[in-house]
Amino acid sequence: MKTIIVVGNGMVGYKFCEKLAAREESKNFKIIVFGEEPRAAYDRVHLSEFFGNRDAKSLELAPASWYTENNIELVVNERVTDIHRKTKTITTGSDKEYSYDYLVLATGSSPFVPPINGVEKEGVFVYRTIEDLEAMLDYAEKIKAKKSDGRAAILGGGLLGLEAGKAVMDMGLEPHVVEFAPKLMPRQLDSRSSNVLQLTLENIGINIHLGKATNRILGNGAITGMDFGEDDSLEVDMLVISAGIRPRDELGKTCNLAMGVRGGIVVNDRMQTSDPNIFAIGEVALYNQMIYGLVAPGYEMAEVAVNQIMESLEVVMSAEIDMSTKLKLIGVDVASFGVPYMPADKGLSIIYENKTKGLYKRINVSLDGKTLLGGIMVGDAEDYSILHQMYLNNLPLPDNAEELIVGSRGEGGSAFGSAMDLPDTAVICSCEAVTKGAVCCSVIDDGNETVKEVAKATKATTGCGGCKPMVADLVKESLKTLGKTVKESICEHFDHSRQELYDIVKLKGVQDYDQLLDEVGKGDGCEVCKPLAASIFASIYNETANRQETIQDSNDRYLANIQRNGTYSVVPRVAGGEISPKQLMAMGRIAKKYDLYTKITGGQRIDMFGAKLHELPLIWEELIAEGFETGQAYGKSLRTVKSCVGSTWCRYGMDESVSFAIEIENRYKGIRSPHKFKGGVSGCIRECAEARSKDFGFIAVEGGWNVYVGGNGGATPRHAELLAEKVDKETAIKYVDRFMMFYIKTAPPLTRTSAWLEKLEGGITYLKNVVINDSLGIVEELDAGMQNFVNTYKCEWKEAVETPEIRERYTHFINSEETDDNIEFVSLREQKMPKEWA
Amino acid sequence: MIANLSTYESVKTDSVKVWFKAGPASKFPKNGGACIKYKDKQIAVFNFTRQATWYACQNLCPHKMEMVLSRGMIGEENMQPKVACPLHKNTFSLKTGENLNGTLDAIATYPIKVEDGFVFVGFSE
Ligand SMILES: Cc1cc2nc3c(=O)[nH]c(=O)nc-3n(C[C@H](O)[C@H](O)[C@H](O)COP(=O)(O)OP(=O)(O)OC[C@H]3O[C@@H](n4cnc5c(N)ncnc54)[C@H](O)[C@@H]3O)c2cc1C
Ligand code: SF4
Ligand code: SF4
Ligand code: FES
């Protein structure tokens, strides 16, 4: 029986054992592992978690019993001190000798401590092992016992240094990161992204000092400060050195294996050192003249070494090693992949920067614009996994590569397909080398249904965790192919999605909220399900908000928008933005009478602010007498249809946009939907009405109207997509009728048409099929639904002022004629505004 | 007059000195609230019809000091009756007054009873 000796029981040494144990042939070997640390291998990548829970057990990669069960003899607390290549033996710290057939060196690395005068002082630490952390924690406690404003510095602003910065901050010390280079994470970031990251870190309280060379550690016995020369220094009570790593290659040196000039044991692509019976893997191995300080390459090396020893000689190390990384700091997204930055003649860079939001995104594209070479993300690394995959798998880029970084996933213009488009061989979790195929299989064939279960079965996400969002997507999509969905229940009172409730109300003819709760819900409801049910009742029965007033959102309940100080605004409908001088004067008179602040809204109408609750019916009574009706600015319903003057006045106009806008606004007024919706009509392609930023828009062109849907301004702007081209007005209206009805029926709560369309499987093509080609066979139903809305419209404010019981709701006190004396106004440019909040 | 949080302190049933007749029960919307005035206090009264219970609390939202809670929506979370402020949807327990979704000050709650079709709120002064 041959013997394999593994020196080093760190992350890579353990992975070697794990992969070895998984092989049938391993039974034919005797395996002995030596570890210098006092415990079995643990997860160094998540070492910082130890600060939070001080639980070494939870970091353990496998319990001691695992080694026994797999016939692996584990000797901890024992250093290997010598290798005798001639006799194929090793000696250990306790002077024992063992012979080997294969020797695997997985001794890792140790932190590099620069030769600075005074580094030996008390209070100076490195950050590598659980013992290091325990010592740091104890020292921090001592500092805190002495003073409340203790400070800790980190020497080195790389990936690890920043993690250490956050760790000392969580220990209650004021963190200072001191970096020699003029930027943070010098290997991964360009200077602009470093600036953005610096601002973000400073905002969360981590102080950054760049371009500082530390000359001396100050203090008598224990550290008190760092000296940067030229009278520049920083007072600190503790220092953590995180200035890079040095491979622990001393064993290689003493037995004369080939070594790199700056250290590291040289290996070939089979992980063999210059002695074919000795392998080196992990951070001690110098491959392609590089040391790789990340787990993923180390794991790959372990895999190769196992295969080589088991004589699967064809498995060799990849020629190129992926060094992409994502920082795992809570609250700060930083990631880089491929070539993060490069000179301009090597490729094109597209950069998006927003300092106020702390966002920086850069992608580098080949000169021909076809391939993604690398990139940097600071502030929002949500798309890291998918971009990283595009890079690794050489996937084709969209025509406009900038779409990859502007507009994030799920909201505005997402330019990449779904994770399901990746090839099955794409490695999703690079730490554990789990492919897309393996994740999907684990769901589809093995019946795992959650990310947690998949993680357990495949190990995906258990390394650095950077692939979690993508694994979650894959799980969800794979479940879908099985016809299962991730349950979208709306709140604790209903185990249903909005669409399910919609169907239940419709099929069972449920009449009110209480009945709905009794029949399919539980408990007594809340502010999430009540307004949602209200919206469904409105969509199905076209009932106004007056009937079940206490399940309405508070704006709907009082048919007015509540404002900062508890007063309300009043917005009459001004269809298409067309208003006569007579109407203008009437509004002016009423606003003056009730001392209301007036302003033109973004939707081409007039908003009157500052009405007290009890004044609302009085104001509306007068407005209605002047021929106005509710503008429903308070509802999840049609707001306005914005128009340009069109061919009536404009010299470019191709058709009458105002008339169309008025017609369509009057058609859709009063309809309640999952969210508010807006329209626009432009008289020509100059698009003065910005119809393409609306939920639906019409633009007059030669030969008819172009119909657009799913646009949005607001927080996540999105251009509407073309639904039909050059159609006549009746057809245009018919298509939008169906689009709206389909949306009302199927959208989740509080989702604008833009977000809904974004998520709609098949997107605009599918939508065209439904509303134009009737692929679902439902257009008749949709048309009838819309016609019912149009036929049953009534102005709910008219209903309110004419019905005494409803009118009674508009009193501040039930038991007093007095009004609310808590409301205070101050004057503003000849009008009034609510007093500032304190 | 600008509201002052210190005007409102929870009252326990056994320290009630005054049962103030707030109005006929029929005036209060089903499963909703309305506001009443007692001396210089504004009190939100909720007719939680579904649970066949009534609740009373200060009308003042401690978030931005606006007199709005009576116009909020009521509901229940893990069996705890609550009201959501109409301005920013902060939620408060109607039983204990505690802010359920954050760390705002608790609101004051008052004993309440209905007799002969009239609603009475209990005050200690
Ligand atoms: C705080 C921290 C955060 C990190 N975060 C990430 C991250 O997010 N992503 C990432 O990819 N990487 C990260 N890393 C790096 C990652 O931990 C290393 O790449 C990985 O641990 C390397 O594994 P290894 O087995 O080569 O070395 P190690 O894990 O260091 O294991 C080597 C082991 O060998 C032992 N040993 C050495 N010499 C001898 C001897 N002569 N005899 C017996 N035993 C010996 C050592 O004591 C040690 O236990 C992080 C590292 C740290 C410290
Ligand atoms: S969109 Fe065309 S028709 Fe309308 S105002 Fe602008 S230029 Fe004139
Ligand atoms: S943009 Fe913000 S502040 Fe302005 S009206 Fe809208 S919600 Fe209010
Ligand atoms: S004022 Fe009540 S939640 Fe803001």
Automatic annotation (TrEMBL), chain A:
Pathway stated in the Swiss-Prot or TrEMBL entry: Nitrogen metabolism; nitrate reduction (assimilation)
Alphabetized InterPro entries for the sequence: BFD-like_2Fe2S-bd_dom (IPR007419), BFD-like_2Fe2S-bd_dom_sf (IPR041854), FAD/NAD-bd_sf (IPR036188), FAD/NAD-binding_dom (IPR023753), NasD-like (IPR052034), NiRdtase/SiRdtase_haem-b_fer (IPR005117), Nit/Sulf_reduc_fer-like_dom_sf (IPR036136), Nitri_red_NirB (IPR012744)
Residue ranges annotated for the Nitrite/Sulfite reductase ferredoxin-like domain, each copy included: 563-624
Single Gene Ontology MF annotation: nitrite reductase (NADH) activity
EC number(s) stated in the UniProt entry for this protein: 1.7.1.15
Leader sequence residues: none
Record domain BFD-like [2Fe-2S]-binding: where: 427-477
Source superkingdom: Bacteria
Domain annotation Nitrite/sulphite reductase 4Fe-4S: ranges: 635-760
FAD/NAD(P)-binding domain: residues covered: 3-308
Record protein name field: Nitrite reductase large subunit
Organism in which the protein naturally occurs: Zobellia barbeyronii
Phylogenetic lineage: Bacteria, Pseudomonadati, Bacteroidota, Flavobacteriia, Flavobacteriales
From TrEMBL, chain B:
Sequence ranges assigned to domain Rieske in this UniProt record: 20-121
UniProt keywords, alphabetically: 2Fe-2S, Heme, Iron, Iron-sulfur, Metal-binding, Nitrate assimilation, Oxidoreductase
Signal peptide start-end: none
Coiled coil regions, renumbered to chain: none
A Pfam match: Rieske_2
Keyword Transcription regulation listed: no
PANTHER family attached to this UniProt entry: NITRITE REDUCTASE (NADH) LARGE SUBUNIT
Protein's UniProt name: Nitrite reductase small subunit NirD
Lineage: Bacteria, Pseudomonadati, Bacteroidota, Flavobacteriia, Flavobacteriales
Gene responsible for this protein: nirD
